[in-house]
Design a protein that fits this description.
single chain; 89 residues; alpha/beta; three-stranded parallel beta sheet; 4 helices; 3 strands
Length: 89
């Protein structure tokens, strides 16, 4: 029913979802570009401070920092603008 629908901001949903996933998966890390408040990854940071990396206002560096985590870890990256000059895979 429509009365059961709860509207929640996308960024709140993102912060809550990545935190819930991390509760089930120890291999999830979150890297952000000094946007934990805006993207709500602060929720994740509060729950898992040792699995949150703030790369500062340096989105391109954030992409580079994530490279070593490919071996056995899942790095979650969120940037607000195109830093790759094309598709980031």
């Amino acid at each position: 029913m429509m009365a059961d629908v709860v509207k929640i901001a996308t960024r709140d949903s993102y912060g809550n979802a990545v935190t819930a996933l991390a509760a089930e998966h120890d291999d999830i890390l979150v890297l952000d570009a000094d946007l934990a408040g805006a993207t709500k990854t602060a929720i994740f940071k509060k729950a898992y401070p040792d699995r949150h990396i703030n790369c500062g206002i340096a989105e391109a560096d954030l992409i580079g920092v994530s490279g070593p985590f490919h071996d056995g870890l899942c790095a979650v990256l969120l940037v607000v603008r195109d830093v790759c000059g094309g598709p980031c895979l």
